[in-house]
Amino acid sequence: MFKLTTTLALSVAALLSAAMPPAYARAATAVEKPLVGTPQQVKDLHWGEVLFYFYQDENLAALTRLGAAQDFQRVTHHSVEADLLKGGLYLSLGQHQEAGRIFKALLNDNVSLDVRNRAWFYLAKIWYQRGYLEDAQIALNSIRGALPGDLEPERHLLEAQVLMYLDRYDEAIRVLERWQPVGDGADVWSAYARFNIGVALVRKDRLEDAAKLLDAVGQLDASTDELEALRDKANLALGFAWLKAGRAAEAKTVLQRVRLAGPLSNKALLGAGWADSAQKNYTRALVPWLELRGRNILDSAVQEAYLAVPYAYAQLDATQQAAEQYTLAVNAFNDESKRIDESIAAIRSGQWLDAIMANDKAERVGWYWQLQNLPDAPETRYLYHLLASNEFQEGLKNYRDLRLMQTSLSAWTLTIEAFNDMIDTRRHAFEQRMPALQRTVETVDMDALEAHRNELESRVGAIERNTDGVGLATERELEQWRKVEHIEQGLQRADPSDPMVVEMRDKVRLLRGRLLWDFNSSYKARLWKERKELRELDVAYKEARRRQVLVERARGEYPARTDEFAKRIAGLQPRLTEIDARLAAVASKQNQYLASIAIRELQAQQQRLAAYSVQARFALASIYDRASSGSGGTQ
Question: I need a labelling partner for 481 at 20 to 30 A (CA). Which of 275, 322, 337, 531 fits?
Answer without folding.
Answer: 531
